[in-house]
C-alpha cells in the first residue's frame, strides 16, 4: 500500500471529520496530538468502556492497595478532554459496524439503545487486545485485568478476604498481580504452563525472578498447564488440586481485530492489523495503532506483535502527524520491557538467546554481575546483565538484566544504543555519568562493552555454562580460581581449586592440559586465562562465572532437560 494519496493539507477548506475508536494510550495520543496540529478538525472518540484515558499498567497496584485512590488511575475524563481539546468523547459506546465504502461507523450504547451512524474522513482504530480465555472447564469464573472495571471487580474480590488465590500465567502482568495479592495478605500461587516464568527472559534469568517470588511466599508451579477450574480449586494437568477462592487469568492477549475485519482490512502474519510506517491500513482512510496492530521488529525487520504502552503512544502521535500532513519517520520496535518483583527488577530489550537459537541467528553472549554503584559506597545492590550481539559486526541483538537498583538504567542505555546502531564493543566508549552513589568508574554498560570487545577479538575465548559437560567429556580440566573459602561454599562438581594468586606455582603441571577456568563472575577467570595463555596453556574462561553456572543449572534442573546450546 502507499500513503501518498492520504496525505492531507494542514488547513483543509472543510474541517476534516476524524473518528477515533478506542482511547487509552494509542487512541488518546492520536486525538490530542491531532487537535494540537489542527484546531478545526472535528474529532470524536468512541470508547466501549466507561473510562477513556487511564493508566492500565497501574491496575495491579490498585488491586494491591499500593495506589489507594482509584482516581489516580484516571488520566483524563471526557469533560476535561472537551474543555481542553474540544474532543467529543463518548464512553460506554461501542462501534458495531464499519462501512468503509461509505466512510461511516455505526455506534450503539454498550447497555443497549438506539444505533447511530457517524461519518468520517479518517478513521483511527485503537481497539487494543483481548485477554486470552482458553476453552478450559470452569474458566468463566476467572478474573482478568485489562480495564478499570476489571480492576474494580478484582479489588472487590480482594476486599472480601479470600483465603487463597491462584494466578494463571507467569508473564509480566501475572507476576505483578501475584505480588500485589501477597501484599494484600492473600496466599498466592502462580501457575505457568511453560517450564519457566517470564518466557521472554532466558531461563537462567527467569529462575532468579522465581527465587524472589518464592522468598516472599509466592508458590510457583511451572511445566503443568491448567486442566480444569472448579468452584474452590484449580486442577493441573499433572493431577495437582490447588485451593483457590480467587483465580486471576493472565495467560496473554491477542489483537482485537473484530473492527478491522468488519472494514475488510488486511491482517498481518501474526494476526494483528497490517499497517504501514505511518499507521495506514489497507484502506487509505483508516489508520490503526496500539496492541491490535503488527509492528516492525528492530532485530530482523519482520512483522511482530508488541503490546507496550509507549509504542502505542508513539504510533498515535505518528498517525496524527500523517493526517495533518507532517513527515513521518518509520520506527521499529525493540520490545523493551521491565517488571518489579518485590525487591527485584527484571528488564529486557531486543531478542533473548532462546529466540535467537530458534531463529538460527548467529550470536555471541557476554555476562556481567556488577554492583549498581561503587561497591565501597553504602547501598550498592548486585545485578546480572546478559548482552547478545552479532559475532561478526558486533550489532547488539538483545539484553536482559535482573537485580536491584540500576537495572532499569542499564537496559534503557542498551535500548538507546540499539536504536542508535551503536555496536556492542562501542558500549565501552560511552561516557556515562559517574559518582560513587550512582555508578562505578567503569559503568556496568561499559564493562559489557569491554567484554564484547574481548569476545570479538577472540583473545580470551569464553565458554557458556551449558558447554561444560561436553568439555569435561573431551578431557578438559576445570579449575576454580577463587579463594579456598569461596570454593568451599559451593563449586562446579569435579573442579579443582587453585586460587588466582597461586596459579603461577602450578604452571608446570598444566602445561599439557586443556583447562577451563572460572571464578565468581568471570573477571578473575579472565585474568587467569590471560596468564595461562601467556604460558602456552590451552585455556578457556567460563562466561559469567560461578553465579551464572548456578542460575543455568537451577533452570536446567527445573526444566528437566538439557539446555539449548549453540553448535560447537
So how many helices? 15
Query: Number of folding domains?
Result: 4
Q: Roughly what is the average pLDDT, rounded to an integer?
A: 91
Give the overall shape, derived from the CA principal axes: globular
Beta strands, count: 31
CATH architect. name of the largest domain: 3-Layer(bba) Sandwich
Percent helix, as a range, is 25-40%
The largest sheet is:
5 strands, parallel
CATH domain fold name of the largest domain: FAD/NAD(P)-binding domain
User: What Rg is obtained from the alpha carbons, in whole angstroms?
Assistant: 27 Å
Low-pLDDT residue spans: 4-8, 562-568
The fraction of residues in strands falls at 15-25%
Kindly report the spatial arrangement of strands forming the biggest sheet: 5-2-1-9-19
Structural class, from secondary structure content? alpha/beta
CATH class category name of the largest domain: Alpha Beta
Distance between the termini: 44 Å
The CATH homologous superfamily of the largest domain is named FAD/NAD(P)-binding domain
Amino acid at each position: 500500500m502507499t500513503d501518498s494519496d492520504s496525505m492531507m493539507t494542514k488547513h483543509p477548506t472543510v474541517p476534516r471529520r476524524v473518528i477515533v475508536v478506542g482511547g487509552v494510550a494509542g487512541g488518546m495520543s492520536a486525538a490530542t496530538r491531532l487537535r494540537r496540529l489542527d484546531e478545526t478538525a472535528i474529532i470524536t472518540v468512541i470508547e466501549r468502556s466507561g473510562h477513556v484515558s487511564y493508566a492500565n499498567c497501574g491496575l495491579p497496584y490498585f488491586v494491591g492497595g499500593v495506589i489507594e485512590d482509584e482516581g489516580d488511575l484516571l488520566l483524563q475524563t471526557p469533560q476535561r478532554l472537551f474543555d481542553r481539546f474540544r474532543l467529543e468523547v463518548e464512553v460506554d459506546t461501542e462501534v458495531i459496524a464499519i462501512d468503509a465504502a461509505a466512510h461511516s461507523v455505526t455506534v450503539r450504547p454498550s447497555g443497549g439503545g438506539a444505533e447511530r451512524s457517524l461519518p468520517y474522513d479518517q478513521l483511527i482504530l485503537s481497539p487494543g487486545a483481548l485477554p486470552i480465555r482458553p476453552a478450559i472447564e470452569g474458566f468463566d469464573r476467572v478474573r482478568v485485568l485489562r480495564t478499570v472495571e476489571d480492576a474494580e471487580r478484582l479489588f472487590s474480590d480482594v476486599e472480601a478476604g479470600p483465603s487463597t488465590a491462584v494466578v494463571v500465567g507467569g508473564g509480566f502482568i501475572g507476576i505483578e498481580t501475584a505480588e500485589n495479592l501477597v501484599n494484600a495478605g492473600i496466599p498466592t500461587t502462580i501457575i505457568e504452563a511453560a517450564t519457566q516464568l517470564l518466557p521472554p527472559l532466558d531461563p537462567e534469568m527467569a529462575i532468579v525472578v522465581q527465587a524472589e517470588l518464592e522468598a516472599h511466599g509466592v508458590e510457583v508451579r511451572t511445566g503443568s498447564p491448567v486442566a480444569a477450574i472448579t468452584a474452590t480449586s484449580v486442577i493441573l494437568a499433572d493431577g495437582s488440586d490447588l485451593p483457590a477462592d480467587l483465580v486471576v487469568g493472565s495467560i496473554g492477549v491477542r489483537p482485537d481485530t473484530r473492527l478491522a475485519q468488519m472494514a475488510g482490512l488486511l491482517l498481518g502474519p501474526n494476526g494483528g492489523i497490517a499497517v504501514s510506517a505511518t499507521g495506514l491500513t489497507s484502506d487509505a482512510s483508516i489508520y490503526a495503532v496500539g496492541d491490535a496492530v503488527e509492528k516492525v521488529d528492530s532485530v530482523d525487520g519482520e512483522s511482530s506483535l508488541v503490546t507496550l504502552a509507549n509504542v502505542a503512544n508513539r504510533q498515535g502521535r505518528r498517525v496524527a502527524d500523517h493526517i495533518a500532513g507532517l513527515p513521518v519517520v518509520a520506527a521499529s520496535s525493540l520490545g523493551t520491557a521491565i517488571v518489579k518483583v518485590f525487591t527485584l527488577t527484571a528488564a529486557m530489550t531486543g531478542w533473548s538467546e532462546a529466540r535467537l537459537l530458534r531463529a538460527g541467528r548467529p550470536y555471541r553472549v557476554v555476562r556481567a554481575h556488577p554492583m549498581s554503584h561503587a561497591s565501597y559506597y553504602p547501598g550498592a545492590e548486585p545485578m546480572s546483565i546478559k548482552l547478545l550481539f552479532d559475532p561478526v559486526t558486533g550489532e547488539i541483538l538483545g539484553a536482559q538484566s535482573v537485580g536491584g537498583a540500576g537495572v532499569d538504567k542499564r537496559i534503557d542505555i542498551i535500548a538507546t544504543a540499539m536504536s542508535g546502531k551503536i555496536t556492542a564493543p562501542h558500549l565501552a566508549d560511552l561516557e556515562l555519568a559517574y559518582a560513587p552513589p550512582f555508578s562505578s568508574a567503569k559503568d556496568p554498560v561499559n564493562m559489557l562493552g569491554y567484554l564484547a570487545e574481548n569476545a570479538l577479538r577472540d583473545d580470551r575465548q569464553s565458554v557458556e555454562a551449558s558447554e561444560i559437560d561436553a568439555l569435561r567429556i573431551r578431557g578438559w580440566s576445570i579449575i576454580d580460581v577463587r579463594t579456598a573459602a569461596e570454593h568451599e561454599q559451593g563449586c562446579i562438581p569435579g573442579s579443582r581449586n587453585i586460587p588466582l594468586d597461586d596459579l603461577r606455582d602450578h604452571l608446570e603441571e598444566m602445561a599439557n592440559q586443556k583447562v577451563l577456568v572460572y571464578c565468581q563472575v568471570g573477571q578473575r577467570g579472565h585474568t587467569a586465562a590471560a596468564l595461562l595463555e601467556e604460558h602456552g596453556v590451552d585455556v578457556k574462561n567460563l562466561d559469567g562465572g560461578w553465579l551464572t553456572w548456578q542460575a543455568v543449572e537451577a533452570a536446567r534442573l527445573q526444566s528437566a532437560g538439557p539446555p539449548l546450546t549453540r553448535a560447537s
